[in-house]
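Objective 1b. Sequence-to-structure analysis of Ribosomal protein L11 methyltransferase.
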Amino acid sequence: MDYVEISFTCSEEMAEILMAELSEIGFDSFVESDNGLLCYIQSDLYDKDQLDVQISRYGNIEPLKYKILNIPKKNWNEEWEKSYKPIVIGDKAIVRADFHEVEKTYDYEIIITPKMSFGTGHHQTTSMMVRMQMGLNHKGKLVYDIGCGTGILSIMAGLRDAKKIIGCDIDEWSVVNTRENIQNNNMNEKISVVHGTVQSLPEEPADILLANINKNIILSELESYNSRLKEGGHILFSGFYERDTSDILDAAKKFGLNLEKEASEQNWKCLQLVKKGK
């Protein structure tokens, strides 16, 4: 599939706002540039009028200028490599592309081939999920990764000694990308991925469920998540704003899912819930 790149000239503060707002209208990848922010969306989802409405509310805070570039899928690697830099998460994990050189050793090293899929560690939701995983026992566990994107969370689960990980994504390109990244991280024996929603996953309850999606999907699929989670199992949620936390926690309590840990970063939220029964 082809993509549209929107290049904003803006401040760092406004770039954070744009990532939050544009993710609500289908933009799935963001790269901070020297002058502002590069935002990417599938061509068939791009609506210029919708974009203008979304950013118009911030005109009184900072004038926003942007340029539009159509990017064929075959050129994505070239565009991404221009801006993609390694990221260190929690001083213990590094997420990098195979063309990056590493100067020191980290406890966890994740290689992500730059493709048009969400989840490189640069976005706050992804980095918070990875940090939360580092504090959760995965050893010998069955893990489901819903909306796996690049497969970064699945790979982290594998590095944390999970026994078996199954990811799913509704985007075929993400499934292809995840499979490439699984191979690049030597995780073929532990991780598999299917094309589809949570309903495409086995009915066998997992020990850990990972979902870095958005509020509406989490709320609509919460019952399915719960049915695929063992008693005493954990769910890690992110992909939503701090202001949405109470809605998600209220809905989760109805299924006996209770808050155990939480993290916030630049208006984004990450939750760790445990299933203790109603």
